[in-house]
Design goal:
Length: about 190
Amino acid sequence: MYIKLAVAAVAVMLVAYPGESEAKRFGVRVSSTPKTTSPSYAVPTIRVHTNSSSGSPSGNALATGTVPYGSGSVSKNAAQALEPMSPEEARRRAEKQAEDERLAKIADDQRKAAQEKEKAEQERLAAIGAAEREKQERAEKAEALRIAKLEAEQERARKQLEKERQCKILPVMTDAEIAFCKEVWR
């Protein structure tokens, strides 16, 4: 279990700190092999050495690795991550993780509340817009009806004037002309 964890941590660190300068900075030995002639990639070789005086398989881990076109390194943090942690450290990390989860939940709740507030605001604005459109449509219909009534009144007045123009009072008129003029002047 510890060895698998150590190998995984070392592999991650090899990817995270690929340069030889980083290895020198952390005091880790790095060995590199010449480039392969194959154009395909090479799998890094990782060897984990344990401190024989500690008697623990997860003691201070030093790693060497080969990467096809460069070299890798391991930081002190990776070596410390491989050591078993004290109960106090485990409790502190668990509390930190619980606090991080709590803060993440609060942030998620705030994000959801903001989304719901934004959605409610959009719905409110949509309702206001719909009410405004309906009000405008009613006003347009009322205006169209008013214009239609006005045009009808003007048409009726025009026809009345035409009939009045056709009705001329003469000294001698037929019964039909007299009836027509009575109708016009009522």
